[in-house]
Specification:
about 240 residues; alpha/beta; Ribulose 1,5 Bisphosphate Carboxylase/Oxygenase; Rossmann fold; 2 domains; globular; Ribosom_uL1_bac-type
């Protein structure tokens, strides 16, 4: 068992692991139990009633968080011709064609968080899939990162404004960042509701039994706070 420091133990003592908290209680607690000296990230962990061994039960989709994650998202765009300048004008950090592909391939350039591509570029981008794929950076239609050139500006603005991709891990758990400890409780709650709605909408038809089994809210290095799954799914904001 790893040994925890005094600050963690003091924070953990505020959380009753035998209690299932309401979303409102958990949001207040996650702010109260963050003890690190920086603006910690708040994450939601959901254990789902899916079988990740079956491809049709795996979840990979996106959610538009009303208040973003609090993190600056660096966007790279694979495009050609006039679409390159349009992407840069829309806020892309990097945009290009063969030059960017060569830079990633030869220089191992990965100073970006999301890669977006127009369909006509995928033949070329596929050549560096072995490098982008393992890092979760390969453009993919399921994550909304392969879009027609005319839709690139809108997609870039959405990604920079708070659209995040999420997928289950090999054990059927989702780990999704929904903001920072510095966010107001209302902002955290609104992002939380958006995520829960997206998760419910993504339920695979093959999933049997209880779909959302456990919900946990936590901050960077902070203790996990167990939520009542029914209340978590039913939270409605005015």
């Amino acid at each position: 068992m790893p040994k925890h420091g005094k600050k963690y133990l003091a924070a953990a003592a505020k959380v009753d692991q035998n209690q299932l908290y309401s979303p409102e209680e958990a949001i207040n607690l996650v702010k109260e139990t963050s003890f690190v000296g920086f603006d910690a990230t708040i994450e939601v962990h959901l254990r789902l009633g899916i079988d990740p061994r079956h491809a049709d039960q795996n979840i990979r989709t996106t959610v538009a968080l009303p208040h973003g994650t609090g993190k600056t998202v660096r966007v790279l765009v694979f495009a050609q011709g006039e679409a390159i300048q349009a992407a840069l004008d829309a806020g892309a950090d990097f945009a290009g064609s063969d030059d960017l592909i060569a830079r990633i391939d030869k220089e191992n350039f990965f100073d970006f968080d999301v890669a977006i591509a127009s369909p006509d570029m995928m033949g070329k981008v596929g050549r560096i899939g072995r490098k982008l794929g393992p890092r979760g950076l390969m453009p993919n239609p399921k994550s909304g990162t392969i879009v027609p050139a005319e839709e690139l500006p809108r997609t870039i603005r959405e990604v920079r404004g708070g659209r995040v991709e999420f997928r289950n891990d090999k054990t059927g758990i989702l780990h999704v960042a929904i903001g920072k400890v510095s966010f107001t409780p209302q902002q955290i709650a609104e992002n939380f509701v958006a995520l829960m709605d997206a998760v419910k909408a993504a339920k695979p038809s093959g999933a049997k039994g209880t779909y959302i089994r456990t919900v946990t809210l936590t901050s960077t290095m902070g203790p996990g706070i167990p939520l009542n799954p029914s209340l978590a799914q039913g939270l409605a904001l005015n």
